[in-house]
Amino acid sequence: MELLGYLLSALTPLNILMALGGVILGTVIGALPGLSATMAVAVLVPFTFTMDPATGLIALGAIYTGAIYGGAFAAILVNTPGTPSAIATTFDGFPMAKRGDGSLAVTLATLSSVFGGLVGGVFLLLLSPPLAKIALAFGPPEYFWLAMFGLTLISALSVGNTLKGLMGGCFGLMLAMVGVAVVGGDLRFTMNSQILLGGFDIVSALIGLYCIPVLIDLVATRDPHLQVETGNRGIRLAEAFGIAWNSKFNVIRSAILGTVIGVLPGAGGSVAGLVSYSEARRSSKHPERFGKGEPDGVIATETANNATVGGGFIPTLVLGIPGTPPDAIILGALLVQGIKIGPTLFTQQGEIVYTFIFGLLIATVLMLPAGLLIGRYAYKSIASIPKTMLVPTIAFLTIIGSFAIHSNIHDVQMMFGLGIAGWILNRCGFAPSPIVLGLVLGQIAEQGFVQSYLIGNARGDILGMFFARPISLGIVALAAFTLLYPVYAHRKKNRDLAKQAAENPGIDIISDAQASATIPKTGLLSQPRDMAGTIVALILIVICAWALSQTPAMTPMGSVFPTTIASVLLVFAAIFVGINILRKSGSGTVDPARDTESTPRRIGLVVAMGVWIAAIPFIGFLAAGILAFFALIAISNYDGLPAKSIVLHVLSGCVIVSAMYFLMAEILLIRMPQGTLF
Amino acid sequence: MRKLALAAAFAATLISGPAFAEYPEKTVNLILPFNAGGESDVSARFQQPYFEKITGQQMVIQYMAGAGGAQAWSQLNSMEGDGYTLMGINLPHTVLQPMEKDVGYETDDLVAVNYFHYTPNALFVPKDSEFQNLQQLIDYAKANPGVVTFSGSGSNSANQIGQTQFDELAGITTTYIPFSGTGPAVTAILGSQVTAGFNYVTSGVNNGDGMRMLAVASEERVKAFPDVPTFKELGFDLVGGAYRGIAVPKSTPEDVRKKLSDIISKINQNPEFIKKMEDAGFVLTNVPYGKMADFVAQKKKEYRAIGEKLGIANR
């Protein structure tokens, strides 16, 4: 048994140590939004030149898989995906943490990630060459439909609010088009600004849209960020095992979906997570619980995104086509080692490749103890740390994270601007997730669409290109099923309940239909007028009109998608405005909790962060960070601080800021802006 | 007298400055304006160990992708010109982008110190394609105008220039399909999503089993593929591809620019490095700092002519 020999050669103490160290470093980097596996792997590649190739590669693979897993921490604990792969983890992970189940969510994420990682790794080990064919079978139309499938999740995410969800999704798609177009080469919607040249970076948008609203609302009340769980239930491992066991179909489906989507070079962890989440929701007995803290949502996303790690290495190693940037860097490291990539890799250079794959599997297993340990402390510290420390620390992390993406202050400005816009939109009933979905999937959708159109046009068969390819049709069918199945299930449930009610007239069963009839069934028009939403819709109409006025100057290739999306958004927004004009103006219901919220503190936070970002180029990153840290302590402080506590806060502030600065400037070697101070 | 000479020598070393004498003294950052995994990345990874061997200092690679490279290039001159911030620079990108639209920099703003290699364009077809040689493909394209699709990396890129020139030289009409990078463009060929592809020779190395290279756009046959004819041999005057080099911010002192250029030239002469690069399909060039002005001026002229044909010479 040759493979066993490779396993034994992977099991040297040094390799295990490298795997463990890599997983821990990766988890920490992944947990910090903005810091990515790409950076860590890129910095560490030179070390692998001096190491034994297999050992070096194991370290790189361990960091990568750890980082994908680590993204779940920020998603669960602060509602901000640490990596784009963890977008769908926020949907249920954060609600779980909010209600006191944070440690359960983290443990579930750990178990799922380990399982997903192992499945992806085993597929990589045993089935690489056949699976690589999937990557080749996916052409532009398939990518287009895959993106469309991802977008169907919008309807699930905005139940009862579909129009706003669709508008948000279209707005996200519009954001994705800003900058230089890959297809066509046009410069679109940049308003001649240097900042928008590269478009909206997904990571900086994620940090802004998810994290800044959390911060703004965090300072507004005295309530703790997360419920501290009742009693000391530790990491709730047995409970998590039980939940995962009951969801075994979800786990297995998500792992396979994750591996297969990981094989596609153009998709990656974020798409895998979203698709698996969507599928888990569709097949669940309780789809209505999704988005409100359903463990299955966390399980699906985390299983799938770690399965993409093994899946992503399949085209990298077999075809030499890397699926993700970390794959690409590891591929580069392999090439420099003189390893020839290709189908013969597994037979002719089996030693290094199999040692690497086993190393990846070992690292994935080590994620279990490492993750549970880190998770235990991460949750405890986030839940118990006083707000006066939590607010400045998270704020600092948003700035550091968005800066780190390109060592560029523009990304920080964009993150902050989107964050404030996101908060306002959220207040008006526009959730951030549809916007993010549009932004993440926009490029895949547009490139797939235009390429399919061009190829179809050349072959004289545009319709056939989109609708006559088996894989495409499969995805279309799945998407339609996902969209329509909930409607069918809902009707069926009501019918069954009605039947039951008819059979047992004595028992008063309230069907869903009857229950919901009390609110929206009386018609769209009888709800009170949504003033805030209408204003947003009007602004969107203006934006669309402006966007449409820009398209004639573009090439046909570059203008087809913006024209389509802007027109669709225009229609949605116009319908929304129309409905609201017909509605009676009503007082609406004002959330009573809002009275106790402090608007001055919110404004204080926004101003403090704005000044902070503006000051970085002048006084330096470290100086601005420390000063702003103190300002935010003051803004988030509700009770008088005793002198001892102040000293403690100031000291820990300096330590946190300096430690993060050190990690960025000295370990990840990110170029920091030099100001006049330090 | 000897004392005086010693003192003079000592003074001379002082004047010439420590930056020249000891550069580089610490880790050097190389910013690549693209994502990991492309040709810029791979060639920089090849350089990395030799840079360390020659200078004793590490070269760290960072990525600043966006706007086809313009995001990074438009910021280069605002970075620190101390010789420790370097940036990858590419042709024809840095000529075509500012020619077409305002992307925040002009070609002549960028200070390239050394162009050290280029990747010739090459024409690939899938392994099981019916086309065994270039003439068959041309005949088919003549009979079916517009039906032949070529994948390539990006719009208005070296690949698209190759396709445009080829169409003109062969008197055919084909359809260019832009992809978001070499990886996806090659995947499209391997999966037979397109008829053929205009890509770089380097792609043929990793995917040799899945694709057939019909012709290469270099002056001479590429060492990694001795059996593949050049377009010139086949009667088409088509030579081109992407040149890659290293640039520095404008504020970088002259002596540092020169020293850096020397280091890169020295790496280019290392036999081990040459072998690795050539095996991977790169063609080494040696355009040191001293010859840079002429080289860039000549390329600008060449690309402007092509840009006018493509209809993108707007500025």
Automatic annotation (TrEMBL), chain A:
Domain DUF112: 16-437
Keywords: Membrane, Transmembrane, Transmembrane helix
All residue ranges annotated as the DUF1468 domain in the record: 535-673
Membrane-spanning residues: 16-45, 104-131, 143-160, 166-183, 195-216, 255-277, 352-377, 389-409, 462-485, 531-548, 560-582, 603-634, 646-670
Cell division recorded as keyword: no
Keyword DNA-binding: no
Pfam families: TctA (PF01970), TctB (PF07331)
UniProt-listed PANTHER family: TRICARBOXYLIC TRANSPORT PROTEIN
Name the UniProt record assigns to this protein: C4-dicarboxylate ABC transporter permease
Taxonomic path: Bacteria, Pseudomonadati, Pseudomonadota, Alphaproteobacteria, Rhodospirillales
UniProtKB/TrEMBL annotation, chain B:
Keyword set, alphabetical order: Signal
Any Pfam family: TctC
Signal peptide: 1-21
Family: Belongs to the UPF0065 (bug) family.
Listed name of the protein: C4-dicarboxylate ABC transporter substrate-binding protein
Organism of derivation: Thalassospira mesophila
